[in-house]
Predict the structure.
Amino acid sequence: MDLSEGRERPYTRPPNGMAANDHDPHSSPPSAGQIGCLSAQALGERLEEEINRAGRHDSPLSCLLVVIDNIAEFSGEQGSDLPEQVFAYLARALGRELRRFDRIGRPSDGELLLLLPGADGPRGEIVARRVLERMRTIKVEAAGTRRPLRVSVGLAAWEKDASGDDLLARTRAATRREQAEDAAAELATTPLQGGSPPALGRPGPS
């Protein structure tokens, strides 16, 4: 397997009124490029911590879900190890795009979740665009061919009284909407084969 990527400038804007080293008084944040990938359990705990902090300080919090739509293709061709290698590589690559107090983790086997403390909707959209730009530069070489990753993202901002599960569910719903829009756009640009289909609600030729 070979993974390659271009280089992009990291997103480094801190939350309003908060220095990077003030965000977590109990531990020193990692330097850029050293953000680790949290397990599902650790990610859930960190998400609840960030929600509590956002509630106490009345500060924004956004989450960005990243799903690789064609990961099953690589799994079928190369076995179960390749998808894990791809996600580990992506976590490292995306970690270089994040601020020192942002976090990235695996809520499930096929997903990456980025926690963006202090980021409201517009700032979250900036990160989403940068993530998509970065992902488009990455190609996976398997079975002698290099192919790009097909990626969907879903962004959601925390709202008062919402739990971590609520916020994750909203990012997944946003991702499904993007996937549906992409599928509809692809269908609209696909040439019809064998003539036009019958009109909806009418039987086709017998």
